[in-house]
Amino acid sequence: MIRTVLLTALCCGLFVMAPAQAWQPEKPIEIVVPTTPGGGIDRTARLLQKIIQENALASVPVTVTNKPGGGGAVSLVYLNQQAGDGHVVAINSPNLIANDLNGRGSVKYRDVTPIANLFSEYTLIAVRADSPIKTGSDFINQLRKDPQSLAVSTPTTLGSVNHLAFALLGKAAGVDPRKLKAVVMGSGGDAVTALLGGHIDAHTGSMSSVVRLVQDGRVRVVGIFAPKRMSGPYAGTPTWTEQGYKALMDTWRGVIGPKGMTAAQIAWWDGVLAKVVTTPTWKEALEQNTWAANYLNSAQTRKQFEEEYADYRTILGDLGMLK
Amino acid sequence: METFTHILNGFVVCMQPINLWYTFLGVLMGTIIGVLPGIGPSAGIALLIPITYGMNPTSALIMLCGIYYGAKYGGSTTAILIRTPGEAASVMTSIDGYEMARKGRAGAALAVSAIGSFIAGTIGVIGLTLFAVPLASMALKFGPAEYFTLMLFAMTAVSTLTGESPAKGVIATIFGLIIATIGIDLQSGQARYTMGIPEFQDGVGFVVVVVGLFAMAEVFRGLEDIYRGTSAEAMKITGKLWLTKEEWKRSIGPIWRGGIIGFVIGVLPGAGGTIASIMSYTTEKRLSKHPEEFGHGAIEGVAGPESANNSDTAGALVPLLTLGVPGGGATAVMLGAFIMYGVQPGPLLFQNRPDLVWGLINSMYVGNIMLVILNLPLIGLFVRLLYIPVGILYPLIVAISVIGAYAINGSTVDLWLILGFGVVGYIFGKLDIPVAPLVLSLVLGGIMEQSFRQAMTISGGDLKIFYNSGITVSLLVMSVISIALPFVMPMLRKLGSKGDES
Fold first, then answer.
1. CA pair distance A94, A16, nearest whole angstrom
2. Are A147 and A165 in a shared domain?
3. Are the beta carbons of A38 and B42 separated by less than 8 Å?
4. Cβ of B307: how many Cβ atoms within 10 Å?
5. Residues A309 and A229 in one domain
6. What is the pLDDT of residues B148-170, one digit of tens each?
7. Which of B151, B194, B339, B344 to mutate to test the interface with A (most CBs of A within 10 A)?
8. Residue A3 counted as domain residue
9. Which has the higher per-residue pLDDT, B191 or B241?
10. Do A129 and A205 have their domain in common?
11. At A186, is the pLDDT very low, low, confident or very high (cuts 50, 70, 90)?
């Protein structure tokens, strides 16, 4: 009896391993985080670690390493020191593309292996509940009348996703992005505080940065940079596309590997991550954090990187920030 | 009345044995994290969040919060004993606390830190209980222009920190401002003074600078003493491990004032414990009848800042709990934890989850009592560190500093920086240049520049924004008075004495 079970197990094992010399990790998997512990990217990595381990999606342990510095540049150098190693992946964000265009750091986005996009945090524009700006068209009309009349926060630096989103919207509305008054704030929290205090007129940020204030009725969102209507607390908010302005922007969280990964290694990760995003723990986390489900596999992610690079390049050119 | 019932209910929640246990666990871990330089409350909380998966949210938040304020207690220990601030906000303590230790009053310095932390911590929690909701709206009045003038006012404190030579103070201040400009400028997205080193893009870490300037420089001075054979005076504890009546009398004022300063600064987002302790230090130096003792072991210079950085934690919870807006690194991590448990901080939190919010706030009263009980008996143990022969002590300081700084970013660049700033601190010591103005301008420089430029963007380049609100005008006036006082006071005194003669 035992022998039969063993034999069956062995056969099954062989069977699973047979097609195309499938790759399996042989040592612990390492997830690299380009920031210090505690931020959104770090939480994504630790969530991934938890789900892979809980559901035994990998036969080896999973560790998380924080390699902060240089707006992500340090982590990319670290990642590529392990070229061709399928055990090391990193969580990344649009910084990967933006830093490439800004000439920061030595590792280009094409130097790493795209593995997946996990979810998107779409960008939005919010005003205070008592603002005279009631709708997206109020906002656009005010900008058309005088681009300098609205001070709009764009955390966390010039050329950030939030800044690009604001510029993109201006352009779509026929306003010179260079004339817009973009106030760079150190963090989303600072920007929201300044918005509530009436020091700025509007805030460009992620869906999660204002979700509580939207629910409390202290802040109104006039437009979301998403391709389709969002659900939950934002179900009633029109997208910019719906309002007639072609402006899409999001802070995505993706997984990348070092350069030189083999097709078999990428296929293994495609298999694991496709399972991760169907787990209840994952779905629950998405809902809690107002993260929008947007899983893309390795091929789709590669395509997204290329499109995004072209888009960012155009808008940075319009802003006169291209190097 | 309803609120009162909620507060009482909160005590029932926090007195449950399971919550008492988690409070204890939190403050204990916080103390340990505080003692270790480098690992601050933000990283400490972030790393311990995974342990709390599956716990009841109230218990988990009580524990994480315990780590946050517990760390402020621990930070003073290494600051006093080996001149290495265990936590950034303890930086001012490493000036006079260490001098007290050298004079054999390490026990008194540690005792006053623990007691000051307890009293001020409790003041902070009372403030949080009474004023949380009204204060949140006050914090909102601070926009970029208000922040710039607040930082300007804080910078005027430099004049009191300069020691004998104002010129040397200016050198240190400018040096601090130069370091503060390193990194990517947020307003333009340009890298400044990064010299091609990617790690410099995020700026030079405050802890790294402080550990180098204080701890490493101390080791270099010690080495020089050994080399010259002048290190005879081993630090023996002569006095009691408790405060003398005189010391107690001198500490009580700074503790109260520090408690209030810390709480108010804590409520303002972005300011934080380090600025609170610097503000308290300069306030005490100004008010003191013997300002010349500051920097040479004045107990007020320990009592005030240590109190301020403890009540700051309760203040920082005001915008977090009432607005859902974190004011700093540690509270940002806490916000992440709240969201993870499905609890949404904001004005509705007090209505929807009174059991959780008041259980959490009230657990801080209990936690502070636990901390003072935990810390006072340990003083005798800590003080024994000073009996360690220098041949062991100095390598120990180097090891603690290096591990602490490396733990933040895991970056070897930071280790070179510690060494470099150690040399700078040593040279400054030789030239009699004070390091306190450097620390102050390093902390304030970045915020000051960014808020100035944010205000300029908002106003379209019109300086009027700086005298448009009551807050900015009063802060500007206070700044002018603060600068003028050292010049005007002697003149007034002279006039006064002349008047007496005639």
1. 36
2. yes
3. yes
4. 35
5. no
6. 998 888 787 776 676 677 788 88
7. B339
8. no
9. B191
10. yes
11. confident
> Does residue B177 or residue B400 have the better pLDDT?
B177
Nearest by CB: A185 against B189, B198, B454: B454
A267/A238 same-domain check? no
One domain, residues A244 and A158: yes
Residue whose tokens read 């509580």 = A212
How many domains are there within chain A? 2
A157 and A224 belong to one structural domain: yes
Cβ contact B409–A157 (<8 Å): no
CA A315 to chain CA centroid, Å, is 18
Contact A69 B411 (CB under 8 A): yes
A141/A164 same-domain check: yes
Average pLDDT value for chain B = 84
Q: Which domain holds residue A169?
A: 121-249
Is residue B501 pLDDT above 70, yes or no?
Answer: no
pLDDT in tens, A125-175: 999 999 999 999 999 999 999 999 999 999 888 888 999 999 999 999 999
Cβ contact B307:B252 at 8 Å: no
Q: Which helix (H) or strand (E) is A15 found in, with range?
A: helix A2-17
Q: Are A123 and A204 in contact (CB under 8 A)?
A: yes
Asked if A182 is an interface residue toward chain B (Cβ–Cβ < 8 A), one would say yes
Find the residue in A nearest to B320 (Cα).
A189
Task: Report the CATH number that the domain containing residue A211 is assigned in CATH.
Answer: 3.40.190.10
**Looking at residue B112, what is its pLDDT?**
92
State the SS3 of B72-91.
HHHHHHHHHHHCCCCCHHHC
Chain A closest CA to B338's CA: distance in Å? Answer: 10
Question: Do A242 and A151 fall within a single domain?
Answer: yes
Q: Rounded to whole angstroms, how far apart are CA atoms A143 and B262?
A: 42
Contact B43 A68 (CB under 8 A): no
Domain final position from A249, A275, A303: A249
Mean pLDDT of A53-59: 92
Task: Answer yes or no: is A5 within a domain.
Answer: no
- The predicted pLDDT at position A20 comes to 52
Residue in chain A lying closest to B338 (CA): A288
* CA distances in angstroms from A156 to A292, B18, B247, listed in the order given: 21, 41, 47
A11 in a structural domain: no
* Distance of residue A246 Cα from the nearest chain B Cα, in angstroms: 26
How far is the C-alpha of B417 from the C-alpha of B424, rounded, in Å?
10
What φ, ψ does residue A25 adopt, rounded to 5°?
-65, 140
B79-102: per-residue pLDDT in tens?
Answer: 888 888 877 788 889 889 988 888
CB contacts of B327 in chain A (<8 Å) are 189
Residue B339: pLDDT band with limits 50, 70, 90: confident
Residue A256: the pLDDT is: 97
Which residue of chain B comes nearest to A184, CA vs CA? B187
Q: Is the pLDDT of residue B313 over 70?
A: yes
- Answer yes or no: is pLDDT of B266 > 70: yes
Rg of chain B in Å (alpha carbons): 22
Mean pLDDT over A217-245 rounds to 94
B358 burial class (0-12, 13-18, 19+ CB within 10 angstroms)?
A: buried
Tell me how long chain B is: 502
Final residue of a structural domain among A224, A249, A274 = A249
> Which of B151, B250, B208 shows the shortest CA–CA distance to B479?
B151
Q: Which two tokens stand for residue B207?
A: 């802890």
Which of the residues B457, B459, B462 would you substitute to probe the A interface, choosing the one with the greatest number of A C-beta atoms within 10 Å?
Answer: B457
Interchain proximity B53–A46, CB inside 8 Å:
no
